Each structure stands twice: as structure tokens, then as C-alpha cells.
């Protein structure tokens, strides 16, 4: 099987052959969604190696008390099983004369075209179409077109709602109520076992022959957790028979303040579906495509004029997935590490949001960014719980987050240790603590770029102060050197567990406390009322004294005199080195863990992903250029990029190092994490944060955008493979259209509100309308 990008300019991701042993790739990368729900793109007919997933954002449940919260796999509504002359339609049998499946990221529509000859020789042409509506968040719409090519055929169709789905074997739902209304509408209601969320699914089938509506008798069957219909008819040779299946899903979580549960929710779902079915598949698909145009492609277009159309496709593909994974409708929810495309990471939110995804929304749709940050504020009860459980103060942000008040939800045990054969403990949930200051950083970044004072007054100041309160209690004083240390942590490089003084963690904690002091002193002058409220709520008079006493005594690893290399942690530079060429050139990630246990890797100079480099990425002016270059030269060869977060970071930094060829090479590799030809890369779901990273490669790296010292800087570095790059950003209320050519930079102020000042290669310009800068 190979992916086909020959129509890249037309926004198409396609496969041109079928292999039932390699289903996961396209199920994940061609997944559909709208932020409310995500639908993995399994086929209508069923296969042994498939994964059928439907997730509704924010509907977490625990199957057992000792398990962690996870998004439950909801009922399957897309299955449509076909029998042609009593032979089941399956691509594992018979002959495939023509096959193509494609996702149009411009419209969000999935199509599959097949010319199939059954084992007994019957030829039929089939087309399958599917959308998850961006306009109507609860709707899934499908269309199947069947055309016999040789003879008339007898056709049997089985389709309905299957509530027997599991998360790797665990069932999250009760048996549920099943209904068949007006001999048309099938409905299933279920309740999650622990969180008590009602789910209601309703579906209808509409049949047409040669464009005219056709009544088809149905036999309804109700089984445990399942309701489905069997339809039988004959289709003449050359006739076109269509099945439209329109479905919706509602949950009681959608109406927490309105009391829509049980029967009321069933009525709501049924009424909404009756309204949708009037529009039919065609209109539903058309209005969804228009919503994509209006809210994404017309708002944040990125246009690359280059040698390889794949570059343009990869950034559009990233924007597509960034939209379908983001719950823009509800600030009680955030983004999972696999979006809504797979069960891996259980739908949990990581630092991925603030560091890799949030910047995309801050610069392109601040209202969405604001909701993502409001989630972090609303989840402070969970952060307080985690801090208290660990005998700290303030807000300790969970490494993995789910419900607002859950606290830490990282599973305790993970994969197998190759040496001992035992499960490995996942220490991130216990000691990967930099996420606390990462969230504070995201808050600060949002405010600095948007100047949204209302957000800061309502949420932002408190969040930064509360996280800094945690760090004040976390610091450990050493009598030896009279400094405060942060011991026994995991930094961004998760191949180094139980390290002391991880540079990234220490510097971020220092920055968090420094920013809290700045804002505390600012509020006392500019907003005494809020200052007094937070002072009482967070006991800030006492904590402020701690900040002032401890901040300048925090141990911050410095560059070594002999080579300017900053120790990643206390022991990294003393560890043994091995030949990493094999692992640097690997086709798949994690190859080193097939040869060594994690415990062995801990004692090697090898990094999973950017660590020290993250400091240069987030704080470009923290160190001089010679120090950054020395650390790049030291750490990049030791970094395996075994995390999908790493390649894009290094690509942006390569632009900073003025090595544009390497930046472009890393960008290509980052683009291939999910879109590449390796067919097993996405079985567990897409790599959500890598899509934010791809945007950063293009806009931060080659486009040159960065916020430096509260100013907008544009230092473009166009790769030789590109003739031009055009993108749009929002800076403190003004929308700027930027076009980079080889020797010129064009900036257009579309809104013209504030005439912002921008810096291009250290020279200041005021953008009141349009301007051109020679570069």
C-alpha cells in the first residue's frame, strides 16, 4: 500500500490500494471531526484488524476505581454491511478493479470509490461518502452509491447503531434504551458507568433509485446494546441505488445547565435528526464545506509556492487536524494527545497544548486560544489536589489532565522493559513537573500577543501566581552551596528519569516565579481590588516573601567555560556515549528501546527529544548566539527525535542558527510523522502536537515570526525549495497578512486598528497599511 499525493494542490490525501492488514494509518489520518466529536475513518464494512472509534470531547469515564479517566468509545453508527447476490461485500474477497479512498481537507469530506467483482463474478461499482459536519456539531452524514454493471442484483443491507464498542476490551456504557420511531428512526440511549453521562444516538436511512426516493421494507432487530435494520431489494443493471444514512449524537454533558437527560435528551436528538434529514446528504455536506471555508481557510490561509506540492498539503493537513481536534464549543474541555482519532493517551491533555498547539490559535483565532486557557484555570481544583497529595502548596498542574477536578490521571504502568520483561513505571505523572510552568508560559504568551486584559483579570494573573506558589514550595535548599535545587524530576527528555536540576525545569520555574513577582507588584499599583482579592485567596503576603527570598538563589545551570555547553541535568554530561547512527536513521521511533531498557538509556548521553533546545525555542534571547550554537552542536546529534514534538522544534531552531537546509529537512521529516509512507506510524491515532509543530516550522521558522521582548519580530528564512510563503497572524488586535519572497517581505495591515510596530532584522517599522521591506 502507498499513499498518493499526486493531487496535493487539490487538498487531497489519498490511498490507491487496499490492504486489510494496514488499516490503522488511513483510519487515523483520514479521521473526521469538528471538535465536539471525532470519528475514526474505519470503512463501512468490517475487517478483522480495524479500529472503530467515535469520541465525544469531555465525556470522561472510569471503568474501575483503580483505572484513570478516559474518553469512552461511543456507539458505532457508520457500519453499513452489504450482501450482493448473497455474497458479503468485503475487499478481502473477490477482485478489486479500481480503488481509491481520499480525504479532502478543504471540505472535510471522505470518499471511497471501488469497482468490485464478487467471488462469483458479479461486477458492481460502489462509492462511499462521509462527513462529520463542521456546521452542525452533532451530525454525521453518509452516502453509499451502488451500481450493478453486468446484471440486476439482489441487495441486502444491514445498518443501525452498535453500542457494543469498547476501549481495548473495557465497556464504558450501560445496556441502554432502544427505540424505533415511525418505522424510520432508530435510537439508542446509554449511560456511562461511573460519570453518569447520558449518550443518545439516533439514525435514519433514506433510499433513492436513479435519483428518486424509494421505500424499502425493513426488518428491525434489537439485541444487547444494539439496534439495526435489515433491508432487502433488487437493483437493475445500470441503475444507481443510493443509501443516505444521517445520524446524530447528543450527551447530557451538552446541556449541563438545562437538565436535558433521559427522555428529554431522546426527544432533542430525534427532533434534531428530523430537521437534518430534510437537508439530505448533499446539503449537509455543502454547508459543512462552506463552514470550513468561512472559519478556517478564508481566515488563516497559508500559501506556499514551491517545488514540491507536498509542502503545501502538509501544512493544510496540519490545519485540518488542528481544527477537528479542538473543542471550540466548550471551555471545560481541551485537546488530547491523539486528538479525537484514537484511544492512545485516553483523550488526556498534556503540555502539548500550551507549547505546541496554543500558539497556532493565539496568532490565528484568539477566542479559541482563550477557551483552551480557560480550561486550565477551571481545572485548578485538580491542580490543587495534586499539589496537596504531594505535600506542596499552590497549583501543581497534572502531567495528564481530564476532568477539571480529577488531578493527575497519568496511568502508573506502561510498556514492557526489554531486559526484565516487566511493565515499566510511567514516572511522568509523578515527577515530570515542568508542565506547571509551561501552562503559566501559555497564559503569559496569550496575554502578551492579544493584550486581553479581561482574561488576565478573570483568570490569567491568578493562574500564574498560583503556579509560582507551587514552585516556591517545591524548591529544595542545599546547605552545600546555599542554593535552591529541583531534584528528582523528568525534563522534556523522557529518556532521563529521576534527574536533579534539569535545566529546562529550573529555568522555567525561575521564570514562573519572576513573572509572578512582576504581576503581583503590578496589581498592587494598577488594580488594588484584584490584588487584595488574590492576596487573601492565595496567601500572597507570605508567598511573596518566599518568592523574593528564593528567586535569585535558584540553581540555574550555566554554560561550561571550556565549550559553552549547558548541562541538561546534573549528570548528563558525565554519562557514557554510544554510536547513535542506527537510531538517528530509523524508520520508526523508539528503536533504541528494542535494544536497551529505559533504565539503560537513562545512563547514556542520548535524548528522546528537545530539552535544552526548548529553552532556546521559548526564550530566544536568554543566551547569546555562541552559547546556542555550541549547545545545538552538542545536543542535536544526541537527540533521536523519538517524540513527535521534537523535529519541529529543531526545525525552527535550525532557522535561528541560519541553517535553512537542515531546517527544511527537519520540516519534511516532521510533515511525514503521520503523512509519510510508513504505514504503521498512526495506528494508535494521529500525533496532535506535531501539527502545531508543523505550523511553527512554517510560520515561526521560515516565516520568521516570533514574539521577542513583547515585540513582534519577523526574520524570514525561506528555504531554497520555496519561491514564496504567505500567511496571516493576529497581533494585539491587528490582522497582518505577510508574504515572504526571496528578497522582499510584504506586510499588509488588514484591520488597521493600532498601526503595530514590527521588527525586521532588528529594524523597527510601523505597519499602518501596506509596506515592503528589502531582505
What features would you describe in this structure?
By secondary structure, this protein is an alpha+beta fold. It has 3 domains: 3-161 and 203-248, Glycoside hydrolase, family 65, N-terminal domain (Beta-galactosidase, Chain A, domain 5), CATH 2.70.98.40; 308-702, Alpha/alpha barrel (Glycosyltransferase); 709-775, Sandwich (Maltose phosphorylase, domain 3), CATH 2.60.420.10. It is built from 19 helices and 32 strands. α9 crosses α10 (503-526). It is globular. The two termini are 44 Å apart. The relative contact order is 0.09. The mean pLDDT is 95.
Short description:
The chain has about 775 residues and is α+β, with helices and mostly antiparallel strands. It has 19 helices and 32 strands. Strand 23 and strand 24 (about 485) form a beta hairpin.
Overall 3D shape = globular
Q: What is the CATH architecture descriptor of the largest domain? A: Alpha/alpha barrel
- According to CATH, what is the topology of the largest domain? Glycosyltransferase
Measured by DSSP, the beta-strand proportion falls in 15-25%
State Rg: 27 Å
Biggest beta sheet summary: 11 strands, antiparallel
Number of strands: 32
Main structural class: alpha+beta
* Average predicted confidence as pLDDT: 95
Amino acid at each position: 500500500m502507498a499513499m498518493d499525493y499526486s493531487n496535493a494542490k487539490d487538498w487531497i490525501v489519498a490511498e490507491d490500494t487496499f490492504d486489510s492488514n494496514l488499516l490503522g494509518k488511513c483510519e487515523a489520518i483520514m479521521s473526521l471531526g469538528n471538535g465536539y466529536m471525532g470519528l475514526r475513518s474505519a470503512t463501512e464494512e468490517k475487517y478483522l484488524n480495524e479500529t472503530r472509534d467515535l469520541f465525544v470531547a469531555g465525556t470522561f469515564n472510569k471503568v474501575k476505581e483503580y483505572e484513570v479517566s478516559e474518553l469512552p468509545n461511543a456507539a458505532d453508527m457508520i457500519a453499513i454491511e452489504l450482501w450482493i447476490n448473497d455474497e458479503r461485500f468485503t475487499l478481502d474477497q473477490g477482485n478489486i478493479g479500481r480503488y481509491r479512498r481520499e480525504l479532502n481537507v478543504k471540505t472535510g469530506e471522505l470518499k471511497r470509490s471501488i469497482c468490485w467483482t464478487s467471488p462469483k463474478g458479479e461486477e458492481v461499482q460502489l462509492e462511499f461518502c462521509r462527513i462529520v459536519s463542521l456546521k452542525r456539531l452533532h451530525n454525521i452524514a453518509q452516502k453509499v452509491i451502488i451500481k450493478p454493471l453486468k446484471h440486476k442484483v439482489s441487495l441486502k443491507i444491514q445498518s443501525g447503531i452498535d453500542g457494543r464498542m469498547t476501549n481495548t476490551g473495557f465497556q464504558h456504557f450501560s445496556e441502554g434504551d432502544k427505540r424505533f420511531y415511525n418505522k424510520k428512526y432508530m435510537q439508542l440511549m446509554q449511560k456511562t458507568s461511573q460519570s453518569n453521562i447520558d449518550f443518545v444516538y439516533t439514525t435514519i436511512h433514506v433510499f433513492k433509485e436513479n435519483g428518486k426516493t424509494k421505500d424499502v421494507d425493513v426488518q428491525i432487530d434489537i439485541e444487547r446494546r444494539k439496534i439495526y435494520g435489515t433491508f432487502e431489494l433488487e437493483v437493475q443493471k445500470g441503475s444507481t441505488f443510493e443509501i443516505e444514512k444521517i445520524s446524530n449524537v447528543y450527551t447530557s454533558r451538552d446541556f449541563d445547565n438545562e437538565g436535558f437527560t433521559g427522555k428529554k435528551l431522546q426527544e432533542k436528538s430525534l427532533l434534531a435528526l428530523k430537521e437534518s434529514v430534510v437537508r439530505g446528504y448533499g446539503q449537509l455536506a455543502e454547508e459543512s464545506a462552506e463552514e470550513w471555508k468561512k472559519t478556517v481557510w478564508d481566515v488563516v490561509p497559508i500559501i506556499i509556492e514551491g517545488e514540491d506540492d507536498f509542502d503545501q498539503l502538509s501544512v493544510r493537513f496540519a490545519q485540518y487536524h488542528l481544527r477537528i481536534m479542538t473543542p471550540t464549543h466548550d471551555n471545560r474541555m481541551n485537546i488530547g494527545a491523539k486528538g479525537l482519532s484514537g484511544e492512545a493517551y485516553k483523550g488526556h491533555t498534556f503540555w502539548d497544548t500550551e507549547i505546541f498547539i496554543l500558539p497556532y490559535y493565539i496568532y490565528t483565532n484568539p477566542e479559541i486560544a482563550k477557551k483552551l486557557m480557560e480550561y486550565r484555570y477551571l481545572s485548578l481544583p485538580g491542580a490543587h489536589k495534586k499539589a496537596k497529595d504531594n505535600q506542596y502548596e499552590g497549583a501543581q498542574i497534572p502531567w495528564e489532565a481530564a476532568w477539571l477536578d480529577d488531578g493527575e490521571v497519568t496511568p502508573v504502568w506502561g510498556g514492557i522493559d526489554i531486559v526484565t520483561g516487566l511493565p515499566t513505571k510511567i514516572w511522568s505523572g509523578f515527577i515530570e513537573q515542568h508542565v506547571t510552568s509551561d501552562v503559566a508560559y501559555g497564559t503569559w504568551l496569550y496575554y502578551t500577543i492579544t493584550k486581553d486584559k479581561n482574561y488576565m483579570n478573570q483568570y490569567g494573573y491568578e493562574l500564574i501566581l498560583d503556579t509560582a506558589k507551587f514552585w516556591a514550595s517545591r524548591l529544595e535548599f542545599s546547605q552545600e552551596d546555599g542554593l535552591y535545587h529541583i531534584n528528582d524530576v523528568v525534563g522534556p527528555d523522557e529518556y532521563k528519569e529521576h534527574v536533579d536540576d534539569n535545566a529546562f525545569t529550573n529555568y522555567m520555574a525561575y521564570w514562573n516565579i519572576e513573572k509572578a513577582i512582576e504581576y503581583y507588584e503590578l496589581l498592587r499599583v494598577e488594580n488594588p481590588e484584584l490584588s487584595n482579592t488574590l492576596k487573601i485567596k492565595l496567601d500572597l503576603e507570605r508567598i511573596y516573601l518566599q518568592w523574593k527570598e528564593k528567586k535569585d538563589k535558584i540553581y540555574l545551570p550555566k554554560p561550561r567555560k571550556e565549550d559553552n555547553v549547558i548541562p541538561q541535568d546534573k549528570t548528563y554530561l558525565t554519562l557514557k556515549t554510544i554510536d547513535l547512527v542506527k537510531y538517528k536513521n530509523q524508520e520508526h521511533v523508539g528503536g533504541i528501546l528494542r535494544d536497551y531498557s529505559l533504565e539503560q538509556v537513562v545512563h547514556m548521553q542520548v535524548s528522546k527529544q528537545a530539552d535544552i533546545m526548548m529553552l532556546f525555542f521559548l526564550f530566544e534571547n536568554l543566551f547569546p548566539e555562541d552559547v546556542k550554537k555550541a549547545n545545538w552542536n552538542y545536543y542535536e546529534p544526541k537527540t533521536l527525535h523519538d517524540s513527535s514534538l521534537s523535529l519541529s522544534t529543531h526545525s525552527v531552531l535550525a532557522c535561528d542558527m541560519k541553517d535553512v537546509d537542515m531546517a527544511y529537512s527537519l520540516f519534511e521529516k516532521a510533515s511525514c510523522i503521520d503523512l509519510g509512507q510508513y504505514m504503521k506510524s498512526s495506528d494508535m491515532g494521529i500525533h496532535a502536537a506535531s501539527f502545531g509543530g508543523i505550523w511553527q516550522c512554517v510560520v515561526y521558522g521560515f516565516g520568521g515570526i516570533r514574539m521577542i521582548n513583547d515585540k513582534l519580530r519577523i526574520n524570514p528564512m525561506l528555504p531554497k525549495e520555496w519561491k514564496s510563503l504567505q500567511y496571516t497572524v493576529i497581533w494585539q488586535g491587528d490582522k497582518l497578512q505577510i508574504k515572504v519572497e526571496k528578497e522582499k517581505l510584504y506586510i499588509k495591515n488588514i484591520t488597521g486598528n493600532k498601526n503595530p510596530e514590527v521588527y525586521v532584522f532588528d529594524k523597527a517599522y510601523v505597519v499602518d497599511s501596506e509596506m515592503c521591506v528589502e531582505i
